[in-house]
Amino acid sequence: MRNTAIGMTEFKTVSAGITALDAMVKAAEVNIIEAQTVCPGKYIAIIDGDLSAVKAAIDIAESQYSVQLISSFILGNPHEGIFSAIYGTTHIEKIGALGILETYDGASVIVAADTAAKTAVVDIIEIRIAKGMCGKSYMLITGTVAAVEAAVEKAKHTVAERGMYLDASMIANPDKKMYPSIL
Description:
The chain is an alpha+beta fold and 183 residues long. The protein has helices at 14-27, 51-64, 81-87, 106-119, 145-161, 179-182; strands spanning 5-11, 31-38, 42-49, 69-76, 97-103, 122-129, 137-143, 165-171. The longest helix is centred in the last third of the chain and has 17 residues, at 145-161.
């Protein structure tokens, strides 16, 4: 079972990211889910733990390293599908409609995926965080046409509020020839 919250920081430089992560884990009892360099030389750190600990860790990063900070978030009770989608271990039996949402940063796409999954009954297929995309990120979701439309629209609005929305689309019935590249 996952802890009650996750948080993420995204930095302009590797140096600031690693230094901030060290301060974050020293400031609060959090676990590092993922910490790495992503395109184009940015640094991301995803943590989890109790909500108060995650908040304390993210607050340290935001206050002490704000000059290099691109974005961050804290999610209490994140949707369980986020974790397997980040790691590419989601098992989808059947593709329905396909929703795609792309962001300018990594943090926003995780918030978008959480929003989408909590808006309608959809499965998160993948969350790609800035790897091989020049810092952009995307998510893929599937479900009924109505569910995917509602989920993408709500996620799009959430990301647009942060100023990180790039593009979104929906394919009502993706061709089966595409499945290997989606799954």
